[in-house]
Amino acid sequence: MDNNNQINLTPINPTPVQNPVELPSTKSGNGIIWVIVAIVVVILVGAGLYLYSNQKNSATPATTTNPQPAQQENLDTAVNSIDVKGVDTDFGAVDKDLQSL
After folding, report:
1. Which of 16, 63, 73, 94 sits 20 to 30 Å CA-CA off 7?
2. What is the b/e burial string over 22-32, where b = at least 16 CB atoms within 10 angstroms of the residue's CB?
3. Distance CA 36, CA 48 (A)
4. Residues 41-62 pLDDT 10s
């Protein structure tokens, strides 16, 4: 036999194949998604109720009543009786404090 035609029969040590370790499946990621979805749904429902109540309240026209002439005269005399002559002296102390800054 020729040396070229001989088959090498020496055993080759194959490297062991590592089986992937299967971790127990946790559904915490799935639970977080459900919590987020629930929060979004609650926010949307709350916003919808808020908008609905505002729309319902704005549909009723606001009734304004004009004051009676006697009330108007009382208000005018009350406004005219206010003494505003001493306003400058009242703010004099404030002006001094501001100037010292």
Report:
1. 16
2. eeeeeeeeeee
3. 18
4. 999 999 999 998 888 766 666 6
pLDDT score of 73 more than 60: yes
Decide if pLDDT at 77 tops 80. Answer: yes
Nearest to 58 by CA among 69, 50, 70, 46: 50
Q: What is the DSSP string of the chain?
A: --STTPPP-PPP-PPPPPPPPPPPP--HHHHHHHHHHHHHHHHHHHHHHHHHHHHHHHHSPPP--PPPHHHHHHHHHHHHT---TTHHHHTHHHHHHHHH-
Compute the distance between CA of residue 68 and CA of residue 1 in angstroms, rounded to an integer.
Answer: 132
| CB 75, CB 67: distance < 8 Å | yes
What does the alpha-carbon distance between residue 44 and residue 50 come to, in Å, rounded to a whole number?
10
Q: Structure pTM?
A: 0.33
